[in-house]
Each structure stands twice: as C-alpha cells, then as structure tokens.
Amino acid sequence: MTARKSGSRLETEIERCRSESQWDKIPELVRQLSAKLISNDDLGELLLGECKLQTYLKENPIKQGASPRGPRPKLVEVRKHLTAALDRGNLKADYLQEASLLMAKLCYVEGEYRDALGHYGRVNLDDMQLVGAPVYRLSMIAEAYATKGLCLEKVPAASPSLSNKNTGSPSSNRSTTDREQEIITCYEKSGDIALLYLQEAEKALSAGIQNRSPKPGPTSQDLELGYFLETGLQRAHVIHFKNGNLTRGVGRFREILRAVETRTTQSLRMTIARQLAEILLRGMCEQSYWSPLEDPPTVSPLDDPTRQGHTQCKNYSLSRRPRVYSGENLFCPQENTEEALLLLLISESMANRDAVLSRIPEHNNDRIISLQSASVVYDLLTIALGRRGQYEMLSECLERAMKFAFEEFHLWYQLALSLMAAGKSARAVKVLKECIRLKPDDPTIPLLAVKLCIGPLHWLDEGECFAKMVIDMGEKAAEFRAKGYLAIGLVYSLKATDASLRSMQEEYQRKALGAFQRAQSLSPTDHLAAFYLALQLAVSRQIPEALGYVRQALQLQGDDVHSLHLLALLLSAQKHYHDALNIIEMALSEYPENFNLLYTKVKLESMCRGPEEALLTCKHMLQIWKSFYNLTNPSDSGRGSSLLDRAIADRRQLNAMTLPDFSDPETGSVHATSIAASRVEQALSEVASSLQSSAPKHGPLHPWMTLAQIWLHAAEVYTGMSKPAEATACTQEAANLFPTSHNVLYMRGQIAELRGNTDEAKRWYEEALSINPTHVKTMQRLGLILHQLQRYSLSEKVLRDAVQVNSTAHDVWNSLGEVLQAQGNAAAATECFLTALELEASSPILPFTIIPRAL
Amino acid sequence: MLAMDQGVVEEWLSEFKTLPDSAVSNYAASLKEKGSLVPALYKVIRENYSDLLEPVCHQLFEFYRSGEPQLQRFTLQFLPELLWSLLSVSAARDPHTSGCIEALLLGIYNLEIVDKDGQSKVLSFTVPSLSKPSVYHEPSAIGSMALTEGALANHGLSRVVYSGPHLQRENFTAQNRFEVLTFLLLCYNAALSYMTSTSLQSLCQLSSRVCICGYPRQQIRRYKGISTRLTVTSEFLVQLITGIHYALCNGEVDLGSKALDDVLYRAQLELFPEALLVGNAIKSSMHSAALKSNNKEGARSIQVEITPTSSRISRNAVTSLSIRGHRWKRHDAVDLGSPDELMDISEVDEGVWPGGVGPDMTPPTITISNSVTTLNLGAKAMKKCRLGGRSSKDKDKEAGPLTTGRAASECAELSIKRLTLTSSQSVPKAGALTSLTRTASAVFSRSFEQVASGNAPPTSNHTISEAGRYSCSLQEDGLGYLSPAPNHTQRSPSISVHLGSDL
C-alpha cells in the first residue's frame, strides 16, 4: 500500500475488504480515505465502528445457546464511532442504513434487545435492496434479519414498547401465533439471504483470484459464518421441529439443500442432508411423502395435531433468491427412500472426503469425529437400502467405509453381513475372520462363517475351524453352543458324503452323529437338531432310530418340509411306498412348489401308481416352473426385471461351461472338481433350498438346472415305460440346456440300452464317466455292460470303484456279485449278494442326501 | 367382552351397510371420533372365539375394498393384531382355525398385488446416482468417483424392483405364508405415519412374540401364550424392523427397543444376515442420534439443534481430500518409480477396485488401478486415457466445467474421469450379447412351449403374450419339442414327440 489510491479504487478496495472480512486492513484504508475528502469522515466512523465490532466478535464469539449480557468496555468505542456516524447525518442513505444495522447489532451484543428492535423498526429491512447490492451488504442484511429474530424471541410479545406493526392489540393467542410467524419469517429470510451472500462471496472470491494471479495470496481461506448467520440459517427449522411442524421443517431443509453449494455451506449441507434423511427414514412413510418439487399436503399426519394452525406456507418473497440447482433432466426423488438415499449418498461423499487418514495421536479427536459422522451416514444407508433389499449396492457403499474401519468392529461386521446378504460369500468369510479377531467372544460371527462355508462355498475345512471356535467357547456361547455342535455335525456329515475312502466316510459319519447327538441334548426343543440327527442316522441306514428322531422333529415343528421329506424317504426305505406317497402329498399341500418333493413324488408314483401318473406330475412340474420363474422377482439382488429375464441373459454362459451342474457365478464352483465333477444329489439339494426364501442366495443358473432336472425325470419315466423315442426327446431338452452334463449322457446311455444298442450305451457311459468319474449309477451300468461283453475283470474293477464311492448302493453290490460269480468266485459273490440284500432292505427310493444340509 | 363394547361393534357393523356411496368419505373421517370402537375391535380380534369376529373381519375387508384411503388405513391399523392372531393359531395347531382372519388377510393381499387394471403390481424405485444431476447436487462438485463394477452398472439412474410381481393366493400354505405376510407388512409400513400408537404398540408386541416364543428368552419377557417356536424368514424380520424403527422414533421407546432387541436375538439365532444388518444399523444410529420423545400423546418430535457450520476437523490432519493433492503433485514431478505409502492410501481413497474379471463376465469391467497406471505403464497409460477422453468430450461438457483452482494438477484426474465415462458408454455397445440373449430366449421358449400350448389354462395374459412372442423363433429352430396331446380317448396323458431335422 505504498501508492495512494484514487477515489474509486479505494472504495473498491474497502468494499473488497468488507466482503472478505479483512478487518485488519480497514484502519489503514480509512486513514487514506479521510485524507481525501472531509465528507468521508462519517463513512470513516462507520467503517471503524464496523471493523472494531467485527474484530471484537471474532475474538469473543457468541456461543449458541448463550445470550450476551450487559455492556462491554471494549464496545464503548464502537458505540462512539457509530453514534458519530449516525448523528451527523451526512451519510448517504445506504450508509446510513448500514450504520443503523450495525448499531442494532451492537445493541443485541450488549443485551439491549428492545433498542435493537427500535433500530430495525426505523430501517425497515424489507425495503433494503438485494439486487445489485455489494456482497458485504447481503451479509449485513442477513445478519440483521437473524438478529431481529433473536431479539423478537427475547422480548415478550405483549411488550408495548415495540415499534412494530403487529403491536397494539393485547396479548391474545392469535397474536402469539403471529409473533411466532414473524420470528420464523425473519430467520427464513435471513437464511435465504445468507445463502445468496455465500454464493456471491464465493463468486467474487474466485473472480478475485483469477484477476490477481499469479500471486495466490492467503485469501483463499474459507469464509466463516459468524453466530448470526449460523443462527439465521438454522434457527427456522429448529423452531419448526420444536413446534412439531415436520412439514415445514422438511420444506425448509429442502430449500437450503436445493441452493447451490458453496465451500462454506458444505458442512452445513452435510448435516442437514443427514438430518433430513433421518426424518425421511424415521418419521415418514410412502403414503405421507411428498416430493421436493410438489406442494406439501395441507393436512399431514406428520404435524403435531394440537398445533394444526401452524401449517401455513411460506408467506414472504424476496427480490432475489439464492441460486438453486437447475437444468434439464434433474433427478427429483419421488419416494421417501429415494430421497433419503440421494441425500445419504451426497453426505457419504462428503464424509468420505473428510476421512482422517493419519493415525498420529494428535489427530485422534479428528479421527473420531470423522468416523462418527461417517458411521451415522452408513447406518442410515444400511437402513434405507436394507428396506429395499439392495444388498449389493449396500455392500459397495460399505466397502467405501473401510477407510474408516481400522479396528472398528461395527463397520467390519456390517460389511461382512452386507456381503453375505449380497451373496458374495467368499469375501464375506474373509471379512468375518477380521470380525472374529476384533470380537472373539461373539459366537454369532463364526456361526455365520460356517453357514457360508457349508452352504454356497463348500469350504468344509474352514467350516470345521469356525465351528470349533464356537464349541471352544464352551458355556460362554450359551444358546449358541448347540448351534456350534449342529454346525460341526453338518461339516462332518458333508465331509462323509464327499470322502472317497470308506474308512474316512465311516469316521466322519461317526463324528457327525456324535455332534448331532450333543446338539440335540443341549437344545432338545430345537427341531433342527432332531432332524439332522435323524438324517444322519438315515444316511447310515439306521432306519428305525431315524424314524424316532424325525417324529420328534415333526412334533417340534409340524410343517417343516425337510422333516416331512425325510419321513417319506424313511418310509420308502421300509418299502411302505403308499404311506410315503401319502406323506409326500401331504407335504406338497403345504409346499406345492417344492421341486425336491415333486421329484420324490415322481419316483414314488411310477412305483405304486404307474408311469402315467408320474408323467402327469412331470407336466405339473413344468407348469410350476414356468409360473414360478416367470413371475418371481429376485428381491435379493435387485437389478433387472424378472428372474426369468436375468436367467435368459445368463444363458450365454452355459455353452462356455464344461461342468454346468454347479457353477456358482461368484466363486467358480461350489465343490472342488476333484471331489466330484457333478452329482445329481447336490444339484437337487441346491434347487430345493433355493425355493426357500430364507436359504442362501443362488446364482441365476438355478432355474435352468431345475428345468433340466425335470426333463431328465420325465426321460427316466419314459425309459421305465420302454418308450425310447419320447425319452430321447426329453433328454434332448435337457441336453439343450446342459450339453455336457453327465446326467444327460447317462440318460442317453440308458436309452441306447433300451434300444438294445450296447456299444452306443457303453460309449455314452464312458463319456459320462470322463466328465464325472465318480458317478455311481453310470459306473454300475457300465459294469453291467462290460459284464455282458464278458470283460469280467474290467467290469469288476469299475464296480469295485463304485462301491468305494458309495458303499450303500445295493444294485452295485448286486452287479459286483454277478461278475464275481461269473468269474467263479462264489464265496465273494455270496458276500456281495448278501450285502446287496441287506442294503436293499433299507434303501430309500431316492438317496437321503437329496435333502439339503444347511445351517 | 363387555356388553357395551359389543354394542359399539354391532352399531359399527350395521351403520356401514346402510351407508350410501356418497357419504363414505365423510363417514371415514368421522370414524376417528368413535373413541370406544377401536379398543372394542381389538378385543374382538384378540378373543378368537367371539361370534363377532367373522362379521368384523368381513366389514374390515369391505373397508379395505372400498378404496377410500382413510377406510383402508382403518383396516390396516389392525394388521399387527391380525397377524399375531393368525400366527399364534397356526403355531398352536388349534383345530379352531381362524378362517375369517385368513380370508381377510388373503383378501387384502390379493387386492394389493394388482393395480387398477388387474395387472400384477410391481413395486419399484429409482436408485439415485451421484453421477446424474439432481435437485440437491451437481455431479461435478462431488469429485471423481470410484470406477467399480457397480458404479459402471449404475452410471445412469436405474429403476429397481423391490417387491412383486406376486401370485394370487387362495389359501395359506406353509410355503407361501411368510411371503404373503411380508407383503402385507410392506403395505402396513407404507402407511406407518397414519398408524395410531396402539397399532404401533401392537406391532412391537407382535415382533417380540414372534421372535421369542419357544426360546429361552420367553421366560425373561414373561410372556405366557403359546410356547412353540414360529418359523420366520429374514425378509419378514426386515419388514418388522422397519415398523419397529418407526415406532421407536415416534413415541414407543420402551416397547420398540424391547422389540428390536428380540428381533435381533432371533436373527442371531437364525443367522439371518439381512435382519442383523438393518437391526444393527438402527441400534447404532439410535445411540448417536439425539432423539427424544416427549409425552405419549402422539408427540412425534424430532429434535434438531443448531450445529456449528465450520468443519470440526482440524486443517492439518491428513484426510482423503487433502491427500488427493499429494498424489498429483508427485505425478507432475515424474516421480514414477518410487512406491510409497501415499500412493497406497490414495488408491484406497478412490474406492476399492475390482480385483479382476471374474469368471462370470456380466457387465464389462474395466480394471485399472491407479498405482498400476502410474507405476508400470506410466506415460503410455496416460496417453491412452487421453485418447479415451477425446471421444467423450461432449459428454464431459455436459458434466460441466471442473471446479477451478487446482487447474494444472487436475489434468490427470480429468483424464481418469473421462475414462470413467467412456467405459460406461461402452456397456450397451456389446451387441453380440443381445443376439446371444435372443437365441437363448428362443431355446428357452421351446422348452416350455409344451406347457403354453397345452390344454392347461395360462395363468395370466402376461404369459400368453410372452409365449406368442417367442413362437416364431421356435419354428426357425425346428428342433424337437414335446407337446401334450389333449386327453381324448384315455386318461393317460400320452405325450407325442415331434422330431426335427437335427435328431
């Protein structure tokens, strides 16, 4: 500031300093100003008064909630300056108004509310020009409205000393209402003008930076709202909510949010966006919602009914309003969840920006603040998205929260749960591991992990580890202890099914039985414990004992579909086919769309009522399949219209797949291919569980797997009727869906056999085995054919392998006996026949393992 | 039941029958004034054996069917009580089944699942996206967003179905029970603001009871009703939680928090991730929320305080925002070789990048991680980014000019941003995909042509049109398919097979 500035430049400079709150530069500028012209002295007084008042307020900020008291010695000087400016009356009208406003503000700071109101009465705030006003004056007007509101709140309504229009009448109910309305209007105007001021100030600032480049200067620091502007921006909606007037409060929130953001309002916007989202989620419903661009309903259940009279709409207009977001194709929410989501996504992006990353101790507090504000937003996001079943999107949002999540159990756990709900099982297990580390005492977490491990993932070893964690908690796990035993029992049970060595199978079966017994004794009222105990007994062919437990399970839970199914299979193992069929039909009356039951029904019907009935059931299944997948919508994963559409879209993957029977789109394959390429039982069980809404989510392939199964069942019925042509057609349908499925190839082999085409049949069986080397039924048929071709030793080898895989397949034992007999090994053959006989006596119509095992 | 209550209910029953159509809306408004009616109706529903139950259910259904919103809400307020009545009876395997309650609930369900024209109703909502301007924001102010698979898929606004279409149901079975009840709760939740506190209390009670009956906690709560366990589904619990959340925030703090605890307890035992997720979130947000409920007379107050508007985080703390500058400065300095902590952190800041193209190639994913671009590919990759940028310039203009200030260093970020846009544009370009879908649908249609052309009546118009649409592709293919010959001579359904040239 060496060179003297010319008059107009000096004024601009003063205006800029006032706009940018650079009060420390004012005295120097005033000195220059008064050196120019005598008449500027008054203006100088005004400026000095202002700068001293503002400096004082900056050094002694007024706290929210605290009211200023009494005159302060430091302010005496301010009063002197302002009185001087006002009294001489030489000022231009604009400046005179400014001086009055400053005087009123001073009065407020000193606690002289009535005097302040008197000053406002003289100025008449509503007449002040907003259009073309310099930036600092906008701020002044906004502060003035806020201060006026504050004063009006302090001064009792009936006070006669007011120079306002609405005085005079004695205090009545109506006048208090009017008074309240006036206060609110003051604050709302103040807020609107404050927003306008901030937008203009930011515009001026960025223009200033461009003009004054390249020297960046220290001016780029944020503007700070003082006490008055903060009050003006927020007090109106605080009063609305205090009065129970949700409609207007929400309206005010929306007005503030619709104004184009500035740097200074970011934090306010984040708070308000979150609060509005809270209100939308906690206090509103779809029917009471109105969109931001609509008029609010005149009568709303949201408002306090005792104060209905307050729902007047906004009744003022300003000559200039803050800029709002505008343009074509603006997204405007039409539903409370939509609006809440939009607001939360905006808050989330802001909260994310403020994530404090450094972990040095000095920033501990900052980190806690940023974590808290973010986790509130994430919790609300969870509530909003959970309601709408959008778990996939939720898991992505929560993933973004991970930058806050170091050692924060809640965020980790929520992420794990969202991944689980979104069907991203493998990642969910990984995150659950971290949760266990953070909270080792909670039995639910390892149980959730086991659920995934034995369900969609089929990670049995990991599952065993997690289940053992729960068991090791002992008494601490309380009600979850039984669940822990149940879990480990299931792991062993599945391992037994997968094991290729007989000794291993028996070992696991023994362990599984022990675990289930333990679970059952710990929790005798849990039908699942009794049911799985029964199932395990059934698998190891202890039919009467199994029947006992399944009855117990049914007493505890009469309409449990799996218990009913097991009961039917147990009855069929005892060759009570008609009873079994009755049970199945009863179960079907409660679960008409359960394909697993229907498959069993087909089998039983062709056994006791002839193949025609069975075919009718197949047809019925096709109808169910169609109506089911045509209509059902995947509420779980959301996008896309109907499940069918998605399934169609996913069909393109099928041809590329070698082992279609169980690919899980997320994890590659459910089972390690080494265990078995594919097994009907497993495919079936997955289909069965997919029909239950509580079961884990499944990939889009399931409808097609089900459909292929239906066709194959029909083909089987036709082969039973010796109708090779029809059977071929059915198989072809399945083959169109899964051309490389071993089940299809096996069925083709059967048809070839039916046609007497042994060579062709052998070729099909060999192909099936090349895809799934452990498919017992194929092995048995191949063994038989080799036997017919008199290749005894090879036949024996194949059949022995088959017995290794499944030691309870009685027809394999029988075939093995025949081969051994043909080879002249009568003693061994007898033993095989006896085993076959014994097993046949306890053999169910379909393997017990078609019943799904899941936690 | 007191004679007085009975009188009130009987009067209510006869009154509506004689009402002319024009007076319905006035009548609906006047229902509020009958103070003793609602408690009397609750009594009727609770006492399962009352003779009045059947006419009451009938009238409640008439109310619902009238289409008058106030009458519908009058019926809906009893929904929690009706649900409990139904569930407790079915759990107790009471031979005296509550047939009329079942009928009422199924009636409401069947009315609600269709729209005015009798078509299946599909409830959907739009998932907002920050990349599209809205009444509350402008995409350019948000800054660059993570280039995740999900972000690409949602680049535009997507409409998502959250309930429906549902099948008409004639009776409750074990399989459809919770599907129907979940949907009914969804309807109830849509009208939560209009529900009385008695109804909300009843909802909380229902939630508690459904979740704890038959479990050890039943003793703690000292509830002595039925003691058999009720099966629940995760979705049902989520709907209950939604209602409880509202009750909790609107005056029913005690019952609500008890109910929430009970639902969470059950969700833990059942290992339901969905219910646990939402329940935990509500619990944790209630902790931090400054919510206070005043007196019980429907005071729904949400407290809002004046908060300081300046950022509470000190300026010198390293935040996601402040660290952004760091990275790009380094980039300018062509300091490409040195891997350092800042790089790692900044990568996290951009969101988690998909690890690789999964075996299922659903949407085309672009996997570029920041550190890879800068460290390994260096200048080449940047060039590529700019190339991508040119093609999408117009799009970029739409998005508005970037915020001024960090001009020079911003250029790299800009090109990444453009990349985001190009990649998302390429999504619909995958033309091969659609043709695949078409053939797939053709194959598919064939497989249930059998059903469609059969004598079985199609379930809805919808399915007919669908079958029709696919039928032409069916002829082209000329593969074998099954069609059942209508039963003519004998009872057995002989299924004839047409063989195509392929076989």
UniProtKB/TrEMBL annotation, chain A:
Keywords: Cell membrane, Cytoplasm, Membrane, Phosphoprotein, Repeat, TPR repeat. GO terms for biological process: phosphatidylinositol phosphate biosynthetic process; protein localization to plasma membrane. InterPro entries: Endocytosis_PI4K-reg_protein (IPR051722), TPR-like_helical_dom_sf (IPR011990), TPR_2 (IPR013105), TPR_rpt (IPR019734), TTC7_N (IPR045819). Residues 2-398 form the Tetratricopeptide repeat protein 7 N-terminal domain. Its main location: membrane. It is found in: Cell membrane; Cytoplasm, Cytosol. TPR repeats lie at residues 409-442, 742-775, 810-843. Residues 160-175 have a biased composition (Polar residues). One of its GO terms (cellular component) is plasma membrane. Component of a complex required to localize phosphatidylinositol 4-kinase (PI4K) to the plasma membrane. The complex acts as a regulator of phosphatidylinositol 4-phosphate (PtdIns(4)P) synthesis. In the complex, plays a central role in bridging PI4KA to EFR3B and HYCC1, via direct interactions. Component of a phosphatidylinositol 4-kinase (PI4K) complex, composed of PI4KA, EFR3 (EFR3A or EFR3B), TTC7 (TTC7A or TTC7B) and HYCC (HYCC1 or HYCC2). Interacts with PI4KA, interaction is direct. Interacts with EFR3 (EFR3A or EFR3B), interaction is direct. Interacts with HYCC (HYCC1 or HYCC2), interaction is direct. Association with the PI4K complex is strongly reduced by TMEM150A. This is Tetratricopeptide repeat protein 7B.
From TrEMBL, chain B:
GO terms for cellular component: cytosol; plasma membrane. Coiled coil: none annotated. Residues 386-406, 481-503 are annotated as: Disordered. It is found in: Cell membrane; Cytoplasm, Cytosol. GO terms for biological process: phosphatidylinositol phosphate biosynthetic process; protein localization to plasma membrane. The keyword Signal does not apply. Residues 486-495 have a biased composition (Polar residues). It comes from the Eukaryota. Keywords: Cell membrane, Cytoplasm, Membrane. The keyword NADP does not apply. Its main location: membrane. Belongs to the Hyccin family. This is PREDICTED: hyccin isoform X1. It comes from Xyrichtys novacula (Pearly razorfish). The lineage of its organism: Eukaryota, Metazoa, Chordata, Craniata, Vertebrata.
